[in-house]
Write a structure and sequence with these properties.
Radius of gyration: 31 Å
Organism: Actinoallomurus liliacearum
Strand content: 15-25%
Pfam families: EcoEI_R_C (PF08463), Helicase_C (PF00271), HSDR_N_2 (PF13588), ResIII (PF04851)
Shape: flat
Structural class: alpha/beta
Domain Helicase ATP-binding: 182-347
CATH architecture of the largest domain: 3-Layer(aba) Sandwich
GO molecular function: helicase activity
Number of helices: 29
Helix content: 25-40%
InterPro entries: EcoEI_R_C_dom (IPR013670), Helicase/UvrB_N (IPR006935), Helicase_ATP-bd (IPR014001), Helicase_C-like (IPR001650), Helicase_Restrict-Modif_Enz (IPR050742), HSDR_N (IPR029464), P-loop_NTPase (IPR027417)
Strand order of the largest sheet: 19-20-18-21-22-16-24-25
Low-confidence stretches: 1-5, 560-572, 574-623
């Protein structure tokens, strides 16, 4: 067959064939054809200090029957390629987008994959919208007009991004929304969505409501919706950021008292609905069939337990459709998310989010303190800071802060964190998780003292404690901390309040300084850092682990069903209390519980005995129950760096010097050959590309690990690979001036001043300043444009030659 087009490139195939075939021949509207549809962002790989991003998955075309409802995907190839070459690619896209129809074409031939039948056929033209919609409805079992209307209802575009553009659901959010609405159309009464922390459960929930709202509820009215949570921030943030912009005056927050009617979207705390714990409770003032839909946020807590007081609310509204949202479903002896809501309609894991580039990958810095490794035992008769005799036993991490607190242990952790922030970014927002409110205050005190310069600059708000005991002041600090446009607070120290439901996109560091036994809680805490914030170059985050909590990353259940339930306690206002998380009985304790402590008392004793004498009770109430000691020598025994590997879900230990040495030796170059390639602009670019392909080798990483930010990248490579002496950039620049004075003086004075400026910029900033393009930077504006600079040398060719010669002399073999 003679081709109509002569080896068209892929974009030409799209422009000259695919788009006309869809819009002019098949009858698809322009707004139904989504071009260059970005499915994901491309995995972000964390390096020792920085990150790099892989290519995104982009489909040439996605066909939407209605707004937010994709039903087919198309991959185009250049005209001389077989369309079968795109078959596996488009199958992958169709699976991710949850669409049953996929097409691949080269402009001459079209292959269609129909997931309904499992057949692959060559077709003459693309099907029309109504034809494909009819086949889609058949595939999804949408058999009547009501189901059709619910499934095809549009989304809301009322919620803005930070830049004012409409917030569009990502591909996995669309899948979750459409699957849920279609399940509702089929008569499903309970549904579960499992979406990793940071992947936008609230947007999914609000858009589910929007589709039901825009379709009009059966009976010709709007649906009545109840959104339930157990913490104020889990109610106020969805209300203000999503439901109010979408539904305006139809939104109402329940706050106790008498039942309000006349609205459609109600948001409320369990505590507010059940404040009376009897027949007068607010929820009982509403008829069981008053609400059409109940959405339960963080459904693994509170109402997850059978027979709990809060479960009674869900049972009261049992005629309503009930949707559970969580990142961490639980399945334990006394609480089972799956038993109540059923198997998930859709799951999107933390590993998948990192793989797609929607969540930030992490690095883990494990730091062990000497007293955590060896334990600590008091001297005979030793008394604590409150003059109480400390029971003679060997104490370890399981007892620290719960039974015994070593003042210097907290101070040493604060010192390590302060030094780390000095090396990285002192204004990088950081959350520190401590064992209790008291422990959090001592950490705040230590950090204030170590960062007094910034504490003064930011009116004592550089570091702050945010716990339930801080009441309104703590909530005010939390609101300030969450905002992306506020500098302070920078370090938020907490116990449990920030472990869930708090969106802090700019959080760069998570510090773990309390023992964590629960997998759900661990996932929630890690989720505080997984938000991306490209506007501030936040593409990854660091975890500083003093207590080996990150061992849970290596648990095979880390990205699967959790094994334990977190028993957070909340007060009547929806604020979390700072209770110590004790080990819970259950068949799964062995999986995630702490190993048996080697610090158990040798004579078989246990915790201090229960006090029964009234006088002793009065004494203990007048002073802390934890024993406090000071004067203990606490030092780090070392630290190790791990980076996340999304493909395996685990962590990889980086022995950095050996890693760099191995990777550089793979280049199969001798030191002088490597230096010679670096000296030439063209080959330096090629060498940089080869290094870029290797994980964890960036100029920033090399400089940090060698402790020499003043050294050239090539010298760092030579040092780490062959242990050659390190030379600073300033020293290389000085050698040119002293050894090659004749070269510099061969130029006219006005050209010589340009080369002097280049050498100065190189010494200060690095080898990027040795490229001709760098002459366009602000550092040269006082000298003129790049064309004016070239005139100083007698033309562009002579300028290029001078820069090439300068590069060769700078990297002259010593």
């Amino acid at each position: 067959m003679t081709s109509r087009f002569q080896d068209l490139l892929e974009d030409e195939t799209c422009r000259r064939f695919v788009l006309p075939a869809l819009t002019e021949q098949a009858g698809w509207r322009e707004d139904q054809v989504r071009r260059q549809y970005r499915i994901n962002r491309g995995r972000i790989r964390a390096t020792a200090r920085r990150h790099r991003q892989e290519r995104a998955l982009i489909a040439d075309y996605v066909l939407e029957y209605s707004d937010g409802l994709p039903i087919a995907v198309i991959e185009a190839k250049r005209s001389r390629r077989d369309p079968a070459d795109g078959f596996e690619q488009v199958k992958r896209y169709a699976e991710l987008l949850d669409v049953p129809f996929a097409y691949t074409t080269n402009g001459e031939r079209i292959l269609e994959l129909d997931a309904r039948t499992g057949r692959v056929n060559e077709i003459r033209g693309f099907p029309a919208p109504e034809e494909l919609w009819a086949r889609y409805r058949e595939d999804r079992g949408l058999t009547d007009a009501t189901q059709d209307a619910l499934a095809s209802a549009p989304l809301s575009s009322a919620v803005p991004n930070w830049d004012g553009t409409p917030k569009e659901p990502r591909y996995y959010q669309q899948v979750a929304i459409n699957r849920t609405v279609q399940a509702i159309a089929h008569g499903t009464k309970r549904a579960l969505l499992v979406l990793a922390t940071g992947t936008g459960k609230t947007l999914v929930a609000s858009q589910i409501v929007a589709k039901l709202w825009n379709a009009n509820w059966p009976g010709g009215r709007r649906p009545r919706v109840l959104y339930l949570a157990d913490r104020n921030i889990l109610i106020d943030q969805p209300k203000d950021d999503y439901f109010k912009p979408m539904f305006g005056e139809a939104v109402h927050k329940l706050s106790g008292g008498e039942a309000k009617t006349g609205r459609f979207i109600y948001l409320g705390l369990y505590q507010s609905l059940d404040s009376g714990h009897d027949e007068t409770s607010l929820y009982r003032q509403y008829a069981p069939d008053y609400f059409d839909l109940v959405i339960v946020d963080e459904c693994h807590r509170g109402s997850a337990t059978e027979g709990s007081q809060w479960r009674a609310i869900l049972e009261h509204f049992s005629p309503a459709i009930q949707i559970g949202l969580t990142a961490t479903p639980i399945s334990t002896r006394d609480a089972d998310t799956y038993q109540y809501f059923g198997d998930p309609i859709y799951e999107y894991s933390l590993a998948h989010g990192i793989e797609d580039g929607f969540l930030a990958p992490y690095r883990v810095r494990r730091v062990r303190l000497n007293v955590d490794m060896t334990g600590w035992r008091p001297a005979p008769g030793q008394r604590d800071l409150y003059d109480r005799e400390i029971p003679d036993r060997l104490y370890g991490p399981k007892e620290y802060e719960r039974v015994l607190a070593i003042v210097e242990r907290t101070e040493e952790a604060a010192r390590y964190l302060t030094e780390y922030l000095h090396r990285t970014n002192r204004m990088g927002k950081t959350i520190v998780f401590c064992a209790s409110s008291d422990h959090a205050f001592r950490m705040v005190q230590a950090l204030h003292n170590l960062n007094s310069d910034l504490s003064r600059r930011y009116d004592q708000k550089y570091v702050c404690r945010i716990t339930a005991k801080d009441l309104d002041a703590g909530r005010e600090r939390l609101d300030e901390f969450r905002q992306v446009d506020t500098e302070a607070p920078v370090i938020a120290v907490t116990s449990r309040m920030l472990s869930t439901g708090v969106d802090v996109p700019t959080c760069r560091n998570i510090v773990l300084f309390r023992v964590i036994k629960s997998m759900p809680e661990f996932k929630q805490i890690i989720g505080r850092g997984t938000r991306l914030f490209p506007e501030d170059e936040k593409f990854s985050f660091d975890i500083i682990d003093f207590v080996e909590a990150t061992r849970l990353f290596n648990d095979p259940e880390f990205d699967g069903p959790p094994m334990r339930v977190v028993r957070d306690e909340t007060d009547a206002d929806g604020n979390i209390s700072d209770t110590i998380d004790e080990s819970e009985p259950g068949t799964d304790d062995e999986t995630v519980a702490e190993p048996e402590s080697e610090y158990a008392q040798e004579d078989g004793g246990s915790l201090p005995p229960i006090i029964t004498d009234p006088a002793e009770v009065d004494d203990i109430l007048a002073s802390p129950r934890t024993f406090y000691v000071d004067g203990v020598s606490v030092t780090p025994w070392g630290s190790a760096l791990y980076v996340s590997e999304p493909s395996s879900g685990g962590l990889r230990l980086i022995e950095y010097e050996q890693y760099v040495r191995d990777q550089v030796l793979k280049l199969d170059l001798e030191p002088h050959q490597l230096l010679g390639q670096w000296a030439q602009l063209k080959t330096r670019k090629e060498l940089r590309e080869r290094l870029k392909e290797l994980n964890h080798i960036t100029p920033e990483d090399l400089a940090e690990w060698a402790g020499r930010p003043d050294a050239d990248t090539i010298d760092l490579l030579l040092y780490l690979a062959w242990e050659l002496p390190l030379m600073s950039r300033s020293e290389r620049a000085r050698r040119v001036v002293t050894r090659h004075r004749d070269f510099l003086e061969s130029f006219a004075p006005e050209a010589r001043t340009v080369l002097d400026r280049v050498l100065h910029q190189y010494a200060a900033r690095g080898p990027e300043e040795l490229e001709v393009g760098a002459l366009r930077s602000d550092a040269y504006t006082d000298m003129g444009t790049i064309m004016e600079l070239a005139k100083r040398f007698g033309g562009t060719d002579r300028l290029n030659g001078a820069m090439d010669d300068l590069n060769t002399l700078i990297y002259e073999v010593s």
